[in-house]
Structures are given as C-alpha cells and as structure tokens.
C-alpha cells in the first residue's frame, strides 16, 4: 500500500511538472527548428513589412547597412552591417540570426565585444522575426543562398 501511494505521488508530480514546464520547453524546440524560408512568399511578404518598420532605419532600405560598418565607433560598437551578400549575415545560421534578433547582439557577443544591436523580443513575435530573416535571405543571390544552406545544415 505504501509503495502504491509513493507511485501515485511521483506520477502526479511528474504530470504536474510536464504540464507546467512543457509549453515553455516545446516552444523553445519549435523556435529552434524553424527556418527563414526565402521561397515562402507569404513569409517573405510579412518579412518585408517587418524589416521596413523595424530594421531598415539602421540596416538600410536596400539591406546596405551603415557606412564603414567594419570600423569601430567611438562608443565601442560597430555600425549596423549590411544584410545583403556583402555583409556577414549569411555566414551565420538561421538559429543564430534569430537569437541575435530576438535577444540582441550583446546577449550572444563574445566577452569584451560591444554590440549595438537591440533585442526585439518585446516588439516582434517569433513569426515576425523569422519572416524578417526570410525577407533578407530572399534578396541574396542563389549562390549565397546555397552557401547559407550549408551553414544551416551544420547547426
């Protein structure tokens, strides 16, 4: 009888933990497994609007970035880089670009590096962030998209 009660308590506790923690856990898995799909016209169209409203002021209407984007500013950070094929966005996986956009550059920057990139967790939904990345990718030449696909496949 005592072992039955212990089994019931453990079972109820386990089910409670899954119900309480499960949504957060599965939300993170879903977020990580999503991709920015440059061939998804609906996602790209949403991303174009999101980019225009939230990204273009720093990264440029044509994804060109700010001048001298590789030169450190007096404040310590760097100007906003281009998101076209001349920048380094395509060197990073979709997952890293997503995290960088959602949580800000400083959240994943190496020690001693100052990032001026703010996080958009409070302003944009995950869907909007993925869409903005899809829009950016849709502007890359096919050669760059293929190289980026290889980057994604290793992550």
Key features of this structure:
single chain, 155 residues, mainly alpha, 55% helix, globular
Per DSSP E runs of 2 or more residues, the count of β-strands stands at 0
What is the average per-residue confidence, as pLDDT, rounded to a whole number?
Answer: 84
> Quick one: overall form?
globular
- State which percent range the strand residues make up: under 5%
Helix content: 40-55%
Output the radius of gyration: 20 Å
Label the structural class. Answer: mainly alpha
Give the low-confidence spans: 8-32
Under CATH, the topology of the largest domain can be stated as Cytochrome Bc1 Complex, Chain D, domain 2
Instruction: Name the CATH superfamily assignment of the largest domain.
Output: Cytochrome c-like domain
Explain what this protein looks like in three dimensions.
The chain folds into 2 domains: 1-33; 37-153, Cytochrome Bc1 Complex, Chain D, domain 2. The termini are far apart. The radius of gyration is 20 Å and the shape is globular. 55% of the residues lie in helices and 0% in strands. It is an all-alpha fold. It has helices spanning 2-33, 41-54, 56-59, 94-103, 126-138, 142-153.
């Amino acid at each position: 009888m005592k072992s039955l009660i212990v089994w019931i308590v453990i079972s109820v506790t386990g089910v409670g933990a899954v119900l309480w923690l499960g949504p957060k856990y599965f939300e993170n898995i879903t977020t990580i497994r999503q991709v920015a799909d440059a061939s998804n016209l609906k996602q790209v169209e949403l991303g174009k609007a999101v980019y225009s409203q939230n990204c273009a002021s720093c990264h440029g209407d044509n994804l060109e970035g700010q001048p001298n984007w590789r030169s450190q500013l007096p404040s310590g950070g760097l100007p906003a880089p281009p998101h076209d094929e001349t920048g380094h966005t395509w060197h990073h996986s979709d997952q890293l670009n997503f995290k960088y956009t959602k949580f800000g550059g400083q959240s994943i920057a190496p020690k001693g590096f100052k990032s001026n990139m703010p996080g958009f967790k409070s302003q944009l939904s995950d869907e909007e962030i993925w869409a903005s990345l899809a829009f950016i990718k849709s502007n890359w030449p096919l050669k760059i998209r293929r190289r980026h696909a290889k980057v994604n496949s290793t992550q």
